């Protein structure tokens, strides 16, 4: 049986390139996550991390990402009312060297206890969307927003040879409590 070019394209698109959407997972008391403090003050064990919320200087872009979340993955926690944590000691939560963390915060990196709905994603899709919107307008970030909300599986977000150079994040709709300083 011969396939037409359009039939072959449809098979490839549906089978291989269409990665699908990774849904949030429910966790209860998991200590496999990390959080980075922005301030130098020690954060006490048992402290409940407050909701992070959107980046106030990027509200047009945040609104686009929220619109795309509702289209692509409406069950994922919203960037407007979540706590951002790291699924491993990578990128943002890389073990600090000297007095600063990998992204320049003076606070420490903490292992946290998470209970609630957790969505894993690649924060680089936010960063690239931000750059794209700056260069070409906010609508240019729509593809990056879609990739952001398609997310990652918990396995992909926490394992792999390149993990130390990734900027994966987890959005939590629930409780995040300090367990220990790393």
**Count of alpha/pi helices:** 5
**What assembly state would you assign to the polypeptide chains in this entry?**
single chain
The largest pleated sheet is described as:
4 strands, antiparallel
Label the structural class: alpha+beta
Using only C-alpha atoms, the radius of gyration works out to 18 Å
Question: What is the end-to-end distance?
Answer: 60 Å
Apparent shape: globular
State the share of residues found in helices, binned by percent.
25-40%
- The residue ranges in which pLDDT falls below 50 over 5 or more consecutive positions are 10-18
Short description:
With 182 residues, this protein is an alpha+beta fold. The chain has helices at 5-17, 59-72, 124-136, 142-150, 154-158, and strands at residues 25-36, 83-85, 109-122, 168-181. The chain is 30% helix and 24% strand.
Structure report:
- The chain has 182 residues and is α+β, with helices and mostly antiparallel strands.
- 30% of the residues lie in helices and 24% in strands.
- It has a four-stranded antiparallel beta sheet.
- About 5% of the residues have low confidence.
């Amino acid at each position: 049986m011969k396939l037409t070019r359009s039939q072959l394209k449809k098979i490839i698109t549906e089978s291989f390139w269409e990665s699908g959407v990774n849904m949030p997972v429910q966790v209860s008391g998991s200590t496999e996550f990390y959080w980075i403090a922005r301030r130098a003050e020690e954060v006490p064990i048992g402290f409940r991390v407050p909701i992070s919320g959107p980046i106030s200087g990027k509200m047009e872009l945040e609104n686009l990402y929220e619109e795309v979340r509702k289209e692509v993955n409406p069950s994922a926690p919203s960037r407007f009312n979540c706590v951002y944590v790291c699924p491993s000691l990578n990128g943002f939560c890389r073990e600090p060297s000297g007095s600063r963390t990998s992204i320049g915060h003076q606070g420490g990196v903490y292992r946290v206890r998470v209970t609630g709905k957790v969505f894993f994603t690649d924060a680089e899709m936010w960063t690239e969307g931000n750059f794209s919107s700056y260069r070409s307008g906010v609508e240019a970030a729509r593809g990056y927003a879609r990739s952001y909300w398609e997310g990652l599986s918990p396995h992909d977000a926490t394992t792999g040879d390149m993990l130390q150079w990734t900027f994966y994040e987890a959005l939590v709709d629930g409780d995040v409590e300090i367990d220990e300083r790393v």
